[in-house]
Fold:
Amino acid sequence: MDILRIATAGSVDDGKSTLIGRLLYETNSITKDKIEALETASKRKGLDFLDLSLLTDGLIAEREQGITIDVAHIYFSTPHRKYIIADTPGHFEYTRNMVTGASNTSVSIILIDARNGVVEQTKRHFYISSMLRIKNIIVAVNKMDLVAYNQEKFEAIKTELLEIAEQVSFKEQTLQFIPISSLYGENLVRKSEETPWYEGATLLETLENFSTQNLELSTIQARFPVQHVVRPKTEEYHDYRGYAGKIASGTFLIGDLVEALPSGQISKIKTIEKFGTQLESGNAKDSIVITLEDNIDVSRGNMLVKVGEQPESRKEIIAKICWLDSQMLTVGKTYLLQHGINRVKAKITNISSVIDIKNMSLSNEAPVDGGLKLNEIGWISLKTASPIFADKYEENPANGSFILIDESGNSTVGVGFVE
Amino acid sequence: MSTFSEKTTVYQANDSSFPRELEDEAIYILREVASQFEKPAILFSGGKDSITVVRLAQKAFYPGKIPFALLHVDTGHNFPETIEYRDWLVNKLGLELHVRYVADSIKQGKVKEETGKYASRNALQTVTLLDAIEEFKFDACIGGARRDEEKARAKERIFSVRDDFGQWNAKKQRPELFDMLNGKIELGENVRVFPISNWTELDVWNYIKEEELRIPTIYFTHEREVFERDGMIWADSEFINKSEDEVPYKTQVRFRTVGDMTCTAAVASTADNLEDVIGEILSAQISERGARIDDKRSEAAMEKRKQAGYF
Ligand SMILES: Nc1nc2c(ncn2[C@@H]2O[C@H](COP(=O)(O)OP(=O)(O)OP(=O)(O)O)[C@@H](O)[C@H]2O)c(=O)[nH]1
Ligand SMILES: [Mg+2]
Structure:
């Protein structure tokens, strides 16, 4: 069975959590006890209707304030496939949680309140979705019930967003627009009678039609970061030395000539194994063990690639960065850079520009207060203590991103995309 | 509740095969744990989720051994079938098992036995757990919790950092991007790791079936002394304070989740094989946690327990 991973996006109160709740409700995915719990919680809040946002807003603080603070992961399935939905917060302050939720998905549902149209957070989330290179964007114009299902309203929002798309979108990205009402379930699972002018598919139909196949990731250059060296040292496996890891991208076959990075030593793939089963090949996202013909030096954090396909060895990196911490990123500061599973020390050498989301423009000067603030996106240069073998994010998303870790608090403070 | 129209379609998976990418994801997480931490342990309850985690660990490091010890926090109110199963598994896989007892925490005066009709040791086990973590200096504890179980769990990261006191701070969770896991902590802190976060109850059952795993017998139908309370079927045992009008009777039941005997409700069932168990879950009107009495205490019962250091 396949899995499609989706995230919601859009400004605060645009109806993301209600949408997910309603989608689950309409697909009969909420059990009776949970509906009863929702009824009780809605009544306690003094509401005379079932507040479906309470299905995903599970924290005490969220239920008190009626907003989403952190991402919730919700699951449901259709006869077709399994869905994992990340319901993310719309509030600016919690952008980092939105990025967390969106980073593992291939579909982004951007909600817009039909009364307000495109606002700054819509742009920000659209920008972030594109920065993550999420290919499938659904723009759900919500609360159509509050604008009498007016077609002009819908078309105007569509036009405005398409204009922004010209600056934000990338070639492989597709945009679909759907007029919906999350509260009443219009055009979610059931085609709405209120929007006869809309000829497109419902939200669920649209989702069902997306491909879950990650063909591209398997056809690009192969990257295998070694997580763990398996050395059982038992009698039976006395000389066994297996390299355990998850294939980041591409395909490896038995007999492939591979190079170990950073040592540069070359060997041939002897076996590809999964719990004793011998495989012919391994594809992107498979967790496997590879053994080699020769005893070369490979340890955790090293990478196996095919000979002739090695990524650039980089010590100086230019990257787009999304800052996730309340302490500013500043030039001269050092962090731990984690690329995949590999960590190296890194020093920020330059901040070249910051994006102005509101006007969708770049300021090509150093930021006014000398650093990159929480939730800001900018371009930086950094220097690492030892080389990393990263690809451009655009060319290989599985090997082109990194996180920055603050060495004093240990927290993840930024996410970077190699340019 | 006026906003609701008639529901039209019933959605149900007709392809109930297990999505293999979930296994790859979990194995990746477990390998990160082995490399990023000094002394990780699997929190083993003997339930289907922790059995699944042990299976995944076996696969992740094969042909090497599982590099984690098991920690079982024994409330003293376990189903004997679970304990029997635990010892069988530990023996079969040659694992290291540590057991720590809630009864000892009570004796030491660290926690007080609850009284009354709903008395349970479920909440008390947090103290025993935190003590055990300190005693063994575990820096990572791997649990079988899933996000689909409960609304506070749905908010949990894969690597969930806990402070010196084992507390979860929902408002200060680390961003977790792509599959990059950051397990860096200070001495004294620890990380709870949830490799099957993205699995549903059904995924777990399909996996158990496809992997042909043995599970404790209480997951299948059996005859048991039960009584009814609050519309649920409770297993009768010496650990439960019954009132006069709660009269036990014998019937065919099974359990959907295995907590301790004071907080796990049974369901009427005739399912004596995995196929039938899966069929029952597919058509169940009630969620898995709906049979957990510990969650019924209040709307935010789980979040509050997690704040206190529960897993
Ligand atoms: N009339 C109407 N109200 C809606 C609709 N969708 C959502 N709402 C209401 O809008 C409010 C906000 O909804 P939420 O679902 O919490 O919004 P959200 O986008 O999840 O908000 P954050 O997660 O905090 O960013 C609630 O009061 C909903 O009942 C809709 O289609 N029509
Ligand atoms: Mg929300």
